[in-house]
Amino acid sequence: MSLNVIDLIKGQLGPALVSQAASQFGESESGISKAIGGLLPAVVGGLANNSDNPGVLDAITNASSSGILGNLLGGSSSNPVISNLLTSIFGDKISGIVNAIATYAGISNNSSSSLLNLVTGATVGSIGKYAADNNLGKTGISNLLGEQKGIISSLLPAGLSLASLNIGDWAKGYKFDNDNDAIRPAASEAPKVEVTRSTTSAGTNPDRNNNDGGGSIWKWLLPLLLLIAAAYFIWKQCDKKQTTTTTTTADSTATPTDTAATVTTTDTAATTAATPVTRTDENIDLNGVMLKGYKGGMEDQMITFLKSGNYKNAADDAALKDKWYDFDHVNFKMGSSTELEAGSQGQLDNLVAILKAFPDAKIKIGGYTDKTGNEASNVKLSQARADFIKNALGKAGVGAQVLGAEGYGSKFATVDAKASDAERAADRKMSVRFAK
Predict the structure, then answer these.
(1) Hey, which of 207, 251, 324, 425 would disulfide with 271, CB 3.0 to 4.6 Å?
(2) Is the Cα torsion angle 62, 64, 69, 74 positive or negative in sign?
(3) CA 263 to chain centre
(4) What's the CA gap between 184 and 211, in Å, rounded?
């Protein structure tokens, strides 16, 4: 099965970015999330339809070094490369796509336009990085994009279709509906067949001539609607998997060495391989002070553990070393060990508050990667990220309670390097444990 490049991109468009975009554009988070859900397959489809376009391939090849992934909200809207790329892949259909998404998601046209730029930046940046990490040249990128043509329409959420986005008649060769029709001819090549139409609306007329623009609408519409419904369910499950961050877990290796739950290292937000469960931030009681966090998440479990007296009664560090708590919201920007994604600081502030409320408690920070890439680089990156969190806690006045920070690279990774990016995300997290 070919790689679904949307899996490479979703990590860049997680809840932290959705929240920040909603605030910046003055829209609801649900509207922003809904718009992204429609734009992402459309943009990937546009690139797939132009998989042999030299300008498109150049833009993707250069994206990995452009820094665009580190500043999606600030850099995408004004980036001339993105503007030119959108013109290349959508031409005069851009305004139609913007309008359709705005109506579908219930947001303004300005917000829809900005999100189109943002999603395009995240897409070319993620594909460019994947290509760089896997030594793909332009031919490899072209092949990768070409493989997406058969799945894009099935990934559009319910309520959207290529036709509703005004892109149902793209250039010949764009067979996203998975039917067995021949490639649709361009307008100048249309077969000379006299078409008789009923006066009934074309969208509801079951007798529409089969030779009108590429086949009877009902021949593909009903199967497509079923595909869209199924794809929307799968999409929501994937989205939940990304927006639902990891709850506290003991390290699966359960070895006597310092085994931690694996932690964020490269590019995407932490996700789990477990069955996705929708969670929202709630008030977590810290001795009368309310912290925002997941019920059963990192803060909740750490506070419960401290209040139980189990930390105080632990004989030594060995009694604590196998219980790690995964950060739910703390994520680093792609390839960075010094810049956090938007929304990360809040959980660091929560950890500071917990340590100040329990001044006798000591902790250790762990950083982890998946099995891909050079191991020496993985260890270096995971160590730098662990040190960054340790230093941040020190600046917040609780440095004396942080006994150490260590990067383990892929030492405790459990998912095969050949697995999908979404599966390998389980090995990319930041964690914290109590220590003595």
Answers:
(1) 425
(2) negative
(3) 16
(4) 10
- Sign of the CA dihedral with 182 first, then 44, 273, and 415 last: positive
Q: Which long-range contacts (CB under 8 A, 24 or more apart) does 64-67 make?
A: 64/125, 64/128, 64/129, 64/131, 64/132, 65/132, 66/125, 66/128
What's the N-to-C CA distance of the chain in angstroms?
A: 48
Asked if 227 and 154 touch (Cβ cutoff 8 Å), the reply is: yes
Q: Is 338 exposed, middle or buried (0-12, 13-18, 19+ CB in 10 A)?
A: exposed
At 303, the amino acid letter reads: I
Tokens of 373: 């890439």
Q: Beta-strand (E) ranges in 108-202? A: none
What pLDDT shows up at residue 310?
92
Q: What's the residue count for the chain?
A: 436
Range from 238-247, 290-299, 304-313, 424-433 carrying the lowest mean pLDDT? 238-247
Q: Per mean pLDDT, which range of 51-55, 250-254, 347-351, 408-412 is the poorest?
A: 250-254
pLDDT band at residue 301 under the 50/70/90 scheme: very high
Handedness of CA 151, 156, 158, 160 (dihedral sign): negative
Eight-class DSSP state of 396: I
* Mean per-residue pLDDT, 234-246: 53
Within 10 angstroms of residue 290's Cβ, the number of other Cβ atoms is: 10
pLDDT tens figures, 91-114 = 878 888 888 888 888 999 888 888
Q: Which amino acid is at 100?
A: A
Gap between the Cα atoms of 415 and 264, Å rounded: 14
Strands 281-286 and 430-435: unpaired
Report, as an integer, the average pLDDT of 294-308.
93
Neighbour-count burial of 295, counting CB atoms closer than 10 A to its CB (0-12 exposed, 13-18 middle, 19+ buried): middle
Distance between CA atoms of residues 69 and 121, nearest Å? 7
* pLDDT over 70 at 410, yes or no: yes
Give the whole-angstrom CA distance, residue 196 versus residue 262: 64
Which residue from 31, 102, 113, 105 is spatially nearest to 78, judged by alpha carbons?
113
* 417's tokens: 């390097």
Band the pLDDT of 311: cuts 50, 70, 90. Answer: very high
Contacts of 17 (CB under 8 A, 6+ apart): 72, 73, 341, 342
The model's pTM:
0.41
Calculate the average pLDDT of the chain: 75
User: Does residue 401 register a pLDDT over 80?
Assistant: yes
Strand segments (E) across 216-340: 249-250, 281-286, 289-294, 323-326
Q: How far apart are CA 265 and CA 280, in angstroms?
A: 24
